[in-house]
Design goal:
The chain has one domain. About 50% of the residues lie in helices and about 10% in strands. About 20% of the residues are buried. The protein is mostly helical. Strand 1 (about 20-25) and strand 2 (about 25-30) form a beta hairpin. It has helices spanning about 1-5, 10-20, 35-40, 45-55, 80-90, and strands at about 20-25, 25-30. The N and C termini lie far apart (about 30 Å).
Length: about 100
């Protein structure tokens, strides 16, 4: 977490690394950050420190919608910021699975 404290963009790099890569006719792209990726990541980090770093550095992303913020339902989305919103949504809705 020390790296994140020194370089807040490490949050985006970490979430991007955990998001899976998909392929389609257009080529390779990152898929949504889903519950299984959240569960895997949160086993390896201090979640409260991670969220504190998000709050300190990305406060404009803290207004999380009621519905899962999928990249397929938005246009011109910043992928890194979307992954932050997806992480926060999954954290705030542990009982929900956006895959369903």
């Amino acid at each position: 977490m020390q790296l994140i404290a020194q370089d807040p963009t490490a949050i985006i790099r970490l979430l991007t690394a955990y998001a899976p890569t998909e392929w389609n006719e257009a080529g390779e792209h990152k898929a949504d950050f889903k519950k299984e990726h959240y569960n895997s990541l949160t086993k390896k980090i201090d979640v409260s420190d991670f969220i504190k770093s998000i709050e300190d550095n990305f406060s404009h992303l803290l207004d999380i919608p009621d519905a899962y913020p999928s990249k397929y339902e938005q246009e011109n989305v910043n992928e890194g910021e979307l992954f932050i919103q997806q992480f926060l949504w999954l954290h705030q809705h542990p009982e929900k699975d956006p895959s369903l």
